[in-house]
Amino acid sequence: MNNVVVRSISGVVFVILMIACLLFNKFLFAALVIFIMSVMLGEFYNITMGRMYTFSKVLAIIAGIILFGLMFARTCYHIPIRIVGLAMVPLFIIMINSLYVKDKEEYGKFSNIYTGLVYIAIPLALSNLIAFDKAGNFSGNLLLCFFIIIWCCDVGAFAFGITLGRFFPAKLFPEVSPKKTWVGFFGGVFTSVLAAFILYRIGLLRFPLTHSMILAAIMSVAGVYGDLYESQWKRVYGVKDSGNIIPGHGGLLDRFDSTLMAMPLGAIYLAVFDLL
Description:
Helix content: over 70%
Number of helices: 11
Radius of gyration: 19 Å
Shape: globular
Order of helices and strands: HHHHHHHEEHHHH
Structural class: mainly alpha
Distance between the termini: 44 Å
Number of domains: 2
Strand order of the largest sheet: 1-2
Oligomer: single chain
């Protein structure tokens, strides 16, 4: 019971903090994403590389922050798109630094440096395209809707899995995540689509209803794969939680694993139909 209380309180506090940063100010939004990105990259590197190559890991986190900052400046202040290429400079430094590493026995682990940037930094840097309109005006409403859809998918999958899993026990991906069931998967899709319908009806999701519901379905499926992808990394390295920054919830990578696939694919869908 104590764990449930701690988990509930910490979860509510974190959600309130996120909503405040997404809705009130573009700089709070930037600070929030940079914090989340830095912690998630650190957690991923600790899982895959342990205490090795600390300098290169720090450079990689700096590279992610620079990429986000340049995308922020591009979408908000319309700096020339070619300036975003400066984000490559820390990557070149990482490559050069790898030549000076004396212990080459675990040199292959350097590939995880670049995997982390592609997996975590790039999707979060692209969140700027969701938070700002084409004129550079900030509005966190759409990004908040994205998170609500993802959260509702997680809650729905858990609720349907717990209540109906005993009657429909077929596993979704047992070799990666033994507890996930197909009934939980479809329950998550259903609740995310329902959430999109409600967001549309109350005026927060300002796309045609059909597009809103398709968006939610795409994001829920992508979110499940994002969750499974992170679970596979943890399983390979024998890790239960990515970290312990949120009491009762584990690490930020555990909380945002779905987002890393759901958010970019949702944005791509809207961009294809010129809705973003």
